[in-house]
Amino acid sequence: MAVDTAAEESGEIVEEGIRIGPDVRIEGMREPRYAPPHRFLTQRFSTGEIRLTNLGSYPDRFETMNAALDHWAAATPDHIWLAERSGGGWRTVSFAEAHERVGRLAGALGQMGIERVSPLLILSANAIDHALISYALMRAGGITAPVSPQYGLAGANPARLAAACATIRPRAVYVEDAALFAEGLAFNCLAGLPVIASRNARPGDIAFDTLYEGSAAPSIERPDDAARYLLTSGSTGMPKAVICTHRMIALNTAQLASCFADPDPPVWINAAPWSHSMGAHSVLHQALHRGGALYIDRGQPTAARFGETLRNLREISPTSHSMVPAGWMMLADELDRDAALARRFFERIRIVQNGGAALGQDIVDRFEAIAVRTVGELISFGSGYGATETGPSVCNVHWPNLRMGMLGLPIPGTEVRLAPVDGKLELRVKGPQVMAGYLARPSCRLRRSTPRAITASATLCGRRTPAVRPAA
């Protein structure tokens, strides 16, 4: 992927017009509650470039990470925001409870000196405490830096965490369990840093629950402050740290929400890791933005761990669901085999989404056959495209759909350019969701061209997308 500059030569416009997005009706499909079709500006240039701009609007009432929490704590204080497994049941946190705890944590972190522009390295799986300390630090003007938990587990390669710390330069460390991450905490790159631990705090560590003892602090976060550093996958070398601002995350979340016309808050069960933008922004923060409930799934699409996902799905009926292809293949097997699980899963599901890699049409067809057999209705099956550098969402399928193999169309407020480069089409993006730059890489910093858009050089420091073909 590349992020385009307005100044780059595109040639002369040879065709231009306004088109309405797909207005699809599929007989026998449950109502997915998508927004009405958007208007798109379409342009073709003499150079062969194709440009698509979604002219749809999106609300900007939330421009910082805690603005949505402030809103829902007042509007629906008792509604569940987060839930995680606790013994045989669920530990839940409502919007009001989260708001009160985040305020107290923000006050304590400020007293520790972990506030404005101070990164907190997070070594934790998805968990309620992980979310609360993240939003607390951002409320205090600080920066969260979650890395893959594997970086700090027993047997991890010290060089990976050392490289991350050299870039992020954390002020402190949060771990969900100091015993579980004991080997990582012993690495030289973390020596001398304060450690906050939710469980098994060692002598000298700060027990997480003690941070609630102080007074709540008001929010001092600002839209253009950095909110989170997220590491890229490292597919083009060592992972780079993407600077994610409050505005970038909040507005990309609003762009996604504008793809729907659904008055009801969503209910999700999800395992996407919060060390990546999909899990942290499109799932965790999207649930907060829309006043929804997120049930944290600690399962994984492997033979050893998928049982936990199935356990959760047997108890909670989601309104939408997203997984990677391996998960959909395993779930299709279980839904086909277990009629009770299928009834529970399809009870109120409205849409499902694939991400991470291409999913075979045969899996989707099988899934739809099970849905029809179980509830007599088809379920819209979507997909999309994005990157850590773009919030993550750029395009998605936001209309009733049963077909795989599509990136979708740009989400509201996004311009996508398909530019010929070396016999392929390079996908370039402009919109409020584009990153501010890479941390500690001044040559890769992006310049702000308008209050709602960020542009960059023709490539993200040498990173290019594979060939992209427009859908027929």
CATH class of the domain at 67-221: Alpha Beta
CATH topology annotation of the domain at 67-221:
Rossmann fold
Return residue spans where pLDDT drops below 50 for at least 5 consecutive residues: 1-7, 447-472
* CATH architecture annotation of the domain at 67-221: 3-Layer(aba) Sandwich
Q: What distance separates the N and C termini? A: 21 Å
Work out the helix count: 11
Radius of gyration in whole Å, from Cα?
A: 22 Å
Question: What is the mean pLDDT?
Answer: 91
Envelope shape: globular
Class from secondary-structure proportions: alpha/beta
Q: Please, could you describe this protein's structure?
A:
The chain has helices spanning 67-75, 95-112, 128-139, 158-168, 182-185, 246-257, 277-289, 306-315, 325-337, 339-346, 361-375; strands at residues 13-20, 39-45, 50-54, 80-86, 89-94, 119-123, 143-147, 172-177, 195-199, 206-207, 226-231, 241-245, 267-270, 293-296, 320-323, 351-354, 380-382, 384-386, 393-396, 409-410, 415-421, 424-430, 447-450, 453-455. It has a domain at 67-221: Rossmann fold, CATH 3.40.50. The longest helix is centred in the N-terminal third of the chain and has 18 residues, at 95-112. It is globular and about 65 Å long. It has 472 residues and is of the alpha/beta class. The model is unreliable at 1-7 and 447-472 (pLDDT under 50). The protein is built from eleven helices and 24 strands. Strands 1-2-3-21-22 form a five-stranded antiparallel beta sheet, with no helix packed on it. Strand 2 (39-45) and strand 3 (50-54) form a beta hairpin.
